[in-house]
Design brief:
Ribosomal Protein S5, domain 2, alpha/beta, elongated, Rossmann fold, 2 domains, 23 strands, 510 residues, 5-stranded parallel β-sheet, 4-stranded mixed β-sheet
Length: 510
């Protein structure tokens, strides 16, 4: 090791990264700086004990290469099928499974992960192991140090997934559990790594692969996770699990880049910013799966010397673009509600008005009779009460076509009564809803307002979708203390007392 540490002093950071990539068979001159860091992150499970990382991306980007070809201490489980006995502990032979035999256990094709037999507690054992490096089987408590790697393919464009679902969607339904994903220390954005081509493989020199494998294994005995404390403090949005994840990732990167521990403040900063981004990517998906429990995703760090706070973002989030900037057509309205899949989602109502005799046509509901019934109630209320909104409305002189678009694929919802009424008023008056507004709440046939369920989560969905204005029922005022202040401050908020008031406020009529 001393020989390697001494040799490391002859390289600067950039040259050493290139040497590491060549040791793994890559030609660094073909990659952008950011891609090199993603490849380095793939190596962290080889140098860091109990490091849990996930990489999802297109096919052919070399996701499994490092775990299969570079180290004899790493095993790749192809196809994802395994058993608790094979992976953790065999009760009949009293022998420890793969996590005790290997430094790194990688699951190829996460979509196919299946635990054979009656292993109903498999996910629970895996969560226990990923959190603490130990698990109980029978009478024994077993500790192991293998890192867990989850690799899989994303089949849709990432910008579509970010807007309509979450970036952990390729995992099997049985594993989509926020507590399981919360144990991931980092999420490598595989879509940023180009598909491998012949020129990406090197003909230059690096460390001999056996030597490289022994060196990274030896580095597992060391710990660099306190490197952050000397120069930086983590921001207030990071909980204990986030802090452990970030320190784990920084430690792994520093072991790879500065095995001799001769790093400076800027080197730690580069590793810290990358670690915060890869952990925030996990947290952003948890927010979509688990709601307000994971609200605090605004990761930052504070420079102890200058007392400056810097916030770290994830590039693929961008601005929520589901609710477009600028005026919409009359009769187009956005609302947030719980769909048939029991998840909150954003819905767009589009309405067309033609001369006729008061008929309503509906589309976009599939076969959901309850959702259609809710809209029908809103339409009946509109026919009976539209004259109170404007004397110029002659409801029975027109035919109406109301179409619903599920923007988050959450299934039809049954609480669109009020939203349908406001959209019909907007369409027949030819007046658009206020820009970037989301209308929340529902009502009964008699016009009684129903407060918003899950108000804080609904506002979070609206904010992530690009809303700048919110229209709330007065009945929901009592729930406002449950909303984090910084979330509530993102909107211009208006309140309505009854359906007619909601139509006026939505159209911007005072």
């Amino acid at each position: 090791m001393d020989e390697l540490f001494a040799g490391r002093t002859n390289f600067n950071e950039e040259q050493w990264i290139d040497a590491l990539l060549r040791s793994c068979g890559y030609e660094p001159t073909q990659f952008e700086e950011r891609v090199k860091w993603h490849i380095l992150c793939r190596m962290i499970p080889l140098v860091e004990n109990n490091f849990n990382v996930c990489e999802l991306g297109p096919r052919g980007t070399g996701k499994s290469h490092i775990y299969k070809e570079i180290s004899p201490n790493s095993i790749l489980i192809s196809g994802g099928t395994t058993t608790v006995a094979n992976l953790f502990y065999n009760l009949s032979s009293r022998s420890v499974g793969l996590v005790g035999l290997w430094d790194c256990v990688a699951f190829d094709e996460v979509a196919g992960i299946v635990f054979r037999g009656k292993d109903k507690d498999a996910l629970q054992i895996m969560k226990d192991y990923m959190a603490s490096g130990s698990f109980a089987r029978g009478r024994d408590a077993i500790s192991a140090s293998a890192s867990m790697v989850f690799i899989g393919n994303i089949n849709q464009p990432v910008d579509t997934l970010v807007k309509t679902s979450h970036l952990l969607a390729p995992f099997p339904e049985a594993m989509i559990d926020s507590a399981f994903f919360d144990r991931f220390h980092a999420y490598i954005p595989g879509w940023e790594i180009p598909k491998m081509r012949p020129e990406f493989f090197t003909g230059q020199y690096g460390l001999i692969v056996d030597y490289f494998a022994e060196w990274v294994r030896e580095m597992r005995k060391r710990n660099f996770s306190d490197a952050i404390n000397k120069y930086f403090r983590l921001g207030r949005d990071l909980n204990q699990r986030d802090t452990i994840a970030v320190k784990h990732t920084v430690s792994g990167l520093l072991k790879l880049l500065y095995p001799n521990e001769q790093y400076d403040k800027e080197a730690v900063r580069r590793c810290l910013e990358y670690a915060l981004e890869t952990r925030r990517r996990v947290k952003e998906q948890l927010k979509k799966i688990g709601g307000m429990e994971f609200f605090d995703v605004h990761f930052s760090y504070i420079d102890l010397e200058k007392s400056e706070e810097k916030f770290i973002t994830v590039p693929e989030q961008g601005g929520g673009g589901l609710i477009p900037d600028g005026p919409l057509n009359p009769g187009v309205l956005h609302t947030v509600a719980t769909g048939s899949a029991s998840h909150l989602g954003l819905y767009r109502i589009e309405t067309q008005v033609t001369p006729g005799n008061g008929a309503l046509k509906m589309s976009g509901f599939g076969s959901n009779a309850q959702a259609k019934e809710a809209v029908k109630v809103g339409f009946d209320y509109f026919k009976a009460n539209s004259g109170h909104v404007s004397a110029s409305i002659k409801a029975l002189d027109h035919d109406y076509h109301l179409h619903v678009v599920e923007l988050h694929n959450t299934g039809a919802n049954t609480s669109m009564t009020l939203a349908a009424f406001v959209a019909l008023c907007s369409a027949v008056l030819g007046k658009p809803i206020q820009q970037q507004m989301v209308v929340l709440g529902s009502m009964s046939l008699g016009g009684n307002i129903v407060p918003v369920e899950n108000l804080a989560e609904s506002l979070q969905v609206a904010a992530d979708s690009g809303a700048k204005r919110i229209l709330l029922p007065m009945a929901s005022v009592r729930d406002i203390p449950t909303i984090p202040g910084e979330l509530f401050a993102k909107f211009q908020t208006s309140f309505y007392a009854d359906p007619r008031d909601a139509a006026f406020k939505a159209l911007g009529v005072e």
